[in-house]
Amino acid sequence: MKERIPQRVDYHRYTEQGVKLDGVISRAECDKDLPRLNEAIIENTGDVYYQLSFDMDVLGNRFVNGHAEALVVLQCQRCMDNFKLDLSCDISIAFVKNEFQQSRAEDSGYDIFWLETKELFDPRVLIEDELLLALPQIPMHLESEIGKGCDVKVQYLDDESDFSTDDNMNGSEQNDKDNPFAILKQLKK
């Protein structure tokens, strides 16, 4: 059975001891503890699975590597229907308290997680941040699902359209009346 995520983590102690967390944030906990993610999605359809490994590198960066994934429901901005999306994100974050640590961590290729003066932080916030960053800017069905899930039908007019020539003539006469240069056409005759 997966372990329950702690509410407060001492990153200093965890990175020195090389602590590994592998667990699940249940759907009920997600509804309560991940409010920003819940605002960004239509529905959370299951648990959030995570793996976090705390460590320290030779340069003194205190970091966490890991992975998080969740199944969420979003609204397709192409067809406005809801669809399910597997969110998956890799985590590689260094904990920093000042600009020197930030510069060193960025040079090492880590993303940054700022901690002011306190040693404790809520790992659910970190996981929520990473899942929010994994959300697409414009949610849409995958291209492979367009025929299945996305019912947007686009009709292109070509030379052999279904419109009769009488309809086209009536449309062009209407356009002539609305055209401010139509009077010039009459003067040309």
Write the layout of secondary structure elements.
Elements: E1 9-10, H1 11-17, E2 20-25, H2 27-33, H3 35-40, E3 43-44, E4 48-56, E5 62-75, E6 82-96, H4 99-107, E7 111-114, E8 120-121, H5 123-134, H6 165-178, H7 182-188
Parallel strand pairs: 6-7
Antiparallel strand pairs: 1-8, 2-4, 3-5, 4-5, 5-6
Notes on the protein architecture:
It is built from seven helices and eight strands. It is of the alpha+beta class and 189 residues long. The strands form two sheets. Strands 2, 3, 4, 5, 6 and 7 form a six-stranded mixed β-sheet that branches. The chain is elongated and about 90 Å long.
Keywords:
189 residues, alpha+beta
Low-confidence stretches: none
Overall, the morphology is elongated
Largest sheet: 6 strands, mixed
β-sheet strand percentage:
25-35%
Gyration radius, in Å = 28 Å
* Helix/strand structural class: alpha+beta
Share of residues in helices:
25-40%
Number of helices: 7
Mean of all residue-level pLDDT scores: 81
**Ends apart, CA distance between termini:** 88 Å
How many strands appear in the DSSP assignment?
8
Quaternary status of these chains? single chain
